[in-house]
Design goal:
There is one protein chain. The protein is mostly helical and 269 residues long. Helix content is 64%, strand content 6%. The protein folds into 3 domains: 17-92, no CATH class; 119-213, no CATH class; 219-263, no CATH class. Helix 7 (164-177) crosses helix 9 (192-210) and helix 8 packs across helix 9 (192-210). It is elongated and about 100 Å long. The N and C termini lie far apart (97 Å). The model is unreliable at 102-119 (pLDDT under 50). This is Protein ANTAGONIST OF LIKE HETEROCHROMATIN PROTEIN 1-like.
């Protein structure tokens, strides 16, 4: 019995030694793989930073030429890629990457780096372009309609620190494209909290000044009763949305118009 116990002990000890050697071998292999990946990442990161910088430069130089959904998508990709690279830098214990170039160095052509237009925000350059097509693409509204709406809402926007035309344009851009407040701040030269405050102030002004144009507000009880008769209790309106393709030169080949409508119990807009 004692001999059998010793044999089992030696066998167990030998097994443990083999397992330890195997673990050490795997650990060395894992470290070698990590080191190799570290080297690959170190070589690729400068190329990625250069690509991001080029994309950022392209965006700043051509933001008026790009369609809103194109510029917003590119902004999102640049932002997410920059965040990922910063995470990689922290994992590899590398110094933080350089920040992307600012508009002050990229907005003007290299031949004229001191041009005052370099410091202008997107909306300033948009107004200078004065293009009817740009108004429709960016705000889903014509310039005469914008001017009329601005005249109606200006008294209600006087409390803002932002000019009324900037405030209205910022709100319309967000409504038209679902842009984030950070995207609004970059285009209109304001910070994100101000962009948020401007948006809700404009929406409230529209509701207070133009709400009387909608019969649902003044005749809500009739509408609720009407929906009740068709088995839709406590309903005060039906909101629908439809997409229509557009032909011609107004938009590109994939252009379309989204129409949103609110109707009462009798199907009236």
């Amino acid at each position: 019995m004692a001999t059998a116990g010793k044999k089992r002990g030696r066998k167990k000890k030998k097994k443990n030694i083999m397992m330890t050697k195997k673990m050490n071998k795997l650990t060395k292999k894992f470290k070698a793989t990590l080191q190799l990946r570290h080297q690959h990442c170190t070589k690729l990161i400068p190329q990625l930073i250069s690509a991001i910088s080029s994309a950022h430069s392209f965006l700043l130089r051509h933001d008026l030429s790009l369609l809103p959904h194109q510029s917003l998508s590119l902004e999102s990709l640049i932002s997410s890629t920059s965040t990922s690279i910063s995470t990689i830098f922290s994992l590899l214990n590398l110094p933080p990457p350089p920040p992307p170039p600012s508009r002050a160095t990229l907005a003007s052509p290299p031949t004229d780096p001191t041009s005052p237009r370099a410091a202008e925000c997107w909306f300033q350059r948009f107004l200078a372009a004065d293009s009817d097509t740009l108004w429709a693409e960016n705000f889903n509204i014509t310039k005469p309609s914008f001017t009329l709406l601005l005249r109606l809402l200006t008294p209600s926007l006087s409390s803002l620190s932002v000019p009324p035309n900037y405030a209205l344009a910022a709100a319309l851009f967000r409504l038209a494209h679902g842009a984030s407040f950070s995207a609004i701040s970059r285009r209109f030269g304001i910070d994100s909290p101000t962009a948020c405050r401007v948006f809700y102030t404009v929406c409230r002004a529209i509701n207070e000044n133009l709400g009387h144009l909608f019969e649902l507000k003044n005749d809500i009880n009739r509408v609720i009763v009407g929906f009740g008769w068709i088995s839709l209790p406590n309903c005060c309106g039906v909101l629908g949305c439809e997409k229509f393709e557009l032909d011609g030169d107004f938009m590109d080949k994939n252009g379309f118009l989204i129409v949103q409508a609110l109707v009462d119990s009798e199907g009236r807009f």
